[in-house]
Specification:
Elements: H1 13-26, H2 28-37, H3 54-60, E1 67-73, H4 80-87, E2 102-108, E3 112-119, H5 125-129, E4 140-146, H6 150-169, E5 176-181, H7 190-203, E6 209-210, H8 219-230, H9 240-283
Parallel strand pairs: 1-3, 1-4, 4-5, 5-6
Antiparallel strand pairs: 2-3
Helix pairs in contact: 1-2
Organism: Genlisea aurea
Family: Belongs to the mitochondrial Rho GTPase family.
Main location: mitochondrion
């Protein structure tokens, strides 16, 4: 169920490769074992390209990855499952909603990238974020909310803040996007739009991306997710606590720098005095 199907319910070559990318992301050892079962008789590890750490990608402001994993957060009934179904070209069915699901497909943005969407149930977020390493595998996160429901929006912002806070406490901060789902509905409270613009500006993230799963496959949404993952130094949310921490670290650094400069100046002055004193002594 994690990849696009053919009309006869089979799996195309593209779907097979997307399934393989998903399996490798979740369990690399299983992929290596399957390669051996299939008769891959050279060094199996040569089939997997291990990329550099995401923290290095942020510093270099670019990534060499071709497979991106995206965590999909959002309150219940916000449109997360419909988004994953749309990514695979399917109609969303409320009769089939597993507690956690994946969707893997190719996104073409000049080159082919494989995007893996992992839906995080709202009631599973607390358990996920209790693990400090939980965001290590995540290249980009999206936060889906029902654009016609103020409560849904505020809960999405709360989830964004929690994820941003963990990213600041660890080295796993990543680009984040807000997705305004169910955009086909006529009822869109003006206060949500105004609040979204203010919060996005305050947290240093892009404006919400509108999405309507009912109007077909929203390719623009998935393109924007891949583009965000390709620029790991952008749209990383900041909390007030994170900004305060940065300022405190900057003050400590500047204080230590001043002490170091003062100590160096004192050392140079003492050395100069000793040279001067020695020269006077020799002249006498």
């Amino acid at each position: 169920d994690a990849v696009e199907r053919t009309p006869s319910r089979g799996i195309s070559l593209s779907g097979f490769l997307c399934e393989w990318a998903l399996m490798t992301s979740l369990d690399p050892a299983k992929s290596l074992a399957n390669l051996i079962y299939l008769g891959h008789n050279c060094d199996a590890t040569s089939a997997i390209h291990i990329t550099r750490r995401r923290s290095v990608d942020r510093k270099k402001q670019q990534t060499e990855r071709n497979v991106f994993q995206c965590f999909v957060f959002g309150p219940k009934n916000s449109g997360k499952s419909a988004m994953l179904a749309s990514f695979l070209g399917r109609r969303f069915s409320e009769n089939h909603t597993p507690p956690e699901q994946y969707a893997s497909n190719v996104v073409k943005n000049g080159s082919k990238k494989t995007l893996i969407l992992r839906e995080i149930p709202e009631d599973g977020v607390k358990k996920l974020l209790s693990d400090k390493e939980s965001l290590a595998a995540c290249d980009v996160s999206v936060f889906v909310y029902d654009s016609s429901d103020s409560d849904s929006f505020h809960r999405a912002i709360e989830l964004l803040s929690n994820v941003a806070r963990l990213g600041e406490e660890t080295v796993y901060g990543m680009p984040c996007l807000l997705i305004a789902a169910k955009y086909d509905l006529n009822s869109k409270p003006v206060n949500i739009k105004d609040a979204a613009e203010e919060i996005c500006l305050d947290m240093n993230v892009d404006a919400p991306v509108p999405m309507s799963a009912k109007e077909g496959n929203p390719d623009d949404v998935f393109l924007k997710i891949v583009e965000a993952a390709e620029h790991p130094h952008r749209s990383i949310p900041e909390t007030q606590a994170g900004r305060d921490g940065k300022r405190n670290r900057r003050r400590v650094y500047n204080g230590l720098l001043s002490i170091s400069v003062g100590a160096a100046a004192a050392f140079i002055g003492l050395a100069a005095y000793r040279v001067y004193y020695a020269s006077r002594k020799n002249s006498n």
